[in-house]
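queue> holo job accepted (zinc ion)
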Amino acid sequence: MASATLLVGPDKHGRSVAIVDGIVAATAPAGTPVLACPDGEIFPGAVCAHTHIYSALAPYGMPKAEPAPENFIQILERVWWRLDRAIDAETLRAGARDYVAKALLAGTTTLIDHHESPNLIEGSLKVLADVCDELGIRAMLCFGATERNFGRDEAVRGLAENRNIKPSPLLRVLVGLHASFTVSDQTIGEAGDLARALGTTVHVHVAEDLADVADAKQRGYVGPLERLIALGALVPGSILAHGVHLDAAQVRLAAEHGAWFVQNPRSNEGNQVGYARNLSQVPTVALGVDGWNPDMGEELSALSRLAAQNGDDAVSGPRAAGRLAKGHALMAERFDLQSDPLAPGAAGDLVVRRGGAVVDVVVAGRHVVADGRLVGGDAGAFETAARAEATRLWDRMKNV
Ligand SMILES: [Zn+2]
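queue> job finished
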């Protein structure tokens, strides 16, 4: 997708933002197209710092797991690890179109995705990259390598898939690892090596549940974080999802290695893994949805509520919004842009709201939602197609 030049505004506060070749600029050249919004308000686009686009179809009638899971590992084994094995290219494409459309319509302009589809490894990231490009969202993609289904060969192929797509102005590639507890030392070491070779970072689930901590201890490490560090996989700038079961010193240790954390409050509550109370020890914590609907306003409400319940004063109530600001900084770091949104040098990603509702969305200067409607496709048709694919997916899930 080409970056574009656009002048947005003035809005009702008299604010205008010039975007030149996809980047916010102090001024726009004469003749630049104008998106006027005299009764709207300009906001930065939101960054969703951890999600799984492949779970997009889950809201469309996913059958309940039988027998009902009683802990986190059983949730993975009976739900998500069956769903991801059943994914084929058609299902992934349909789910991705629906999910990316819903993200843009909610004012989310960047998705940091963690993908897994063990029976569709090669080519899976291209499916996601093509949909992101088609609809015009900024993205960071990775394939989460694991050994949980087919052993080391699966991990080698998973890591290699991260080489199969190339960065572009709106796309960065990370190196994905599922989690410490589903990979060998060798795979973790290779993930770090690959991230350094590609000039990128690692994206991995860390200490989401106590089971991850117990596994690392059994392997002779203090915990999963220390295991990643010992094996050279905590490349500076890496993204650690969850960190629910890290103590304060461990959270600070990760930050000293230049890591980012992503808190996923709705998911953590839903999976009953606990509240990530120690993340507030460090400033580098962004907000993710972990496969839930990509409306960052909803996630922010959940964070605000759960932080208050858990006495996490650093992010309770209105202070929760600080997590969203950090998402911008995380995105800007990977794209080598100014981290202060809407300032010259920042990503040209913004949202115009009227009475709170998203009216227009611009990504890298391209108008991707206009008057509340997706520009790159028919969002209603995407949802219809996604629901039809979901029916096929539930059938396949019975047999994988
Ligand atoms: Zn996740």
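queue> Residues 20 and 307 are 39 Å apart (CA to CA).
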